[in-house]
Amino acid sequence: MILPLALALASYHWMKAGRGSRHHRSFARILLDIGKPDIFKSLLLLLVATLIVVAIAFSLSRMGMVAALFGGIAFAVLARAARRRNLSSFKLLLASLVLSASIAVWIGAGSVVKHFAQLSHDGELTSHPTEGRLALWKDVATLIQAHPFTGVGLGCFEFAFTRFQSSELTLTIDHAHNDYLELASELGIPADALLLSLIFFVLFRSIAGALRAQSHRDRSIALGAVSGVLALLVHEAVDFNLYIPANALVFAVLLGISYSVATEQIQPSPNSGR
Fold first, then answer.
1. In 3D, which of 195, 181, 196 has the Cα closest to residue 151?
2. Quick one: which of 104, 176, 227, 254 has the fewest CB in 10 Å?
3. 241 near 232, Cβ under 8 Å?
4. Is 24:272 a contact under the CB 8 Å cutoff?
């Protein structure tokens, strides 16, 4: 979630340093300007983004990498839409990926490559390739069908699921590894739909407000926060991040930061009625 925000702040300082400059920022020019505060901040934030990508890669979380990449691309696309012809966000994302790959190779990326090569074997939940998340989600769907309106109660998934568990019966499944399904099973479909509707309403309002923001700084922060939220929403499809307090807190903070920009854009100015 923090990766797009780091890229957004790096892009902001990079653009800020280039305002009013008539020089094309070549590599030699960057070396000459590296002592400037905004260039230095931009490069430092780019290093932070790179280290985040490397850490995610060596965490061996396949969907974590997919979600992080999705968040970075989402920021680059949204920033491109907001600034039109400016490509600095794509360049910074590409630079972060290249640096991350270089560092991973230098450290030794054999374990990462081997892990990603096993995408056809879902061994995170079970020891059998034919079983795993798909089998788990099928059983969760059966649980939801049994309690479609009221759910089984918040925090009760682990106990209610044992009745519907059809595979890996020696294991205790405490989460559905899909927050959308788990919330539906615990709260019921209506409450789950209402909660998700509110989240996506705030998200879409935040995107619209960020694209309209006049302040480059506010727009960058809002787009970075929105992209972090989008990254987690993608990861939610295969994990239970909202049930982890630290992740849920960061998610709520990023959603609040992005929405604050949207509300500022629709508030009338003090002199609007004069």
1. 181
2. 104
3. yes
4. no
Q: How far apart are CA 56 and CA 176, in angstroms?
A: 22
Single-letter residue type at 230: L
Which backbone phi and psi does 87 adopt, to 5 degrees? -115, 15
Residues 6+ apart with CB under 8 A from 212: 265
Angstrom distances, CA of residue 169 to CA of 135, 163, 215: 12, 11, 56
The CA-CA-CA angle for residues 93, 64, 250, to 5°, reads 85
Distance between CA atoms of residues 223 and 239, nearest Å: 24
| Domain layout of the chain by residue ranges | 2-119+190-266
Q: Which helix (H) or strand (E) holds 28?
A: helix 27-33
Residues 28-76 have pLDDT tens digits of 555 555 667 888 888 888 888 888 988 888 887 888 889 999 998 898 8
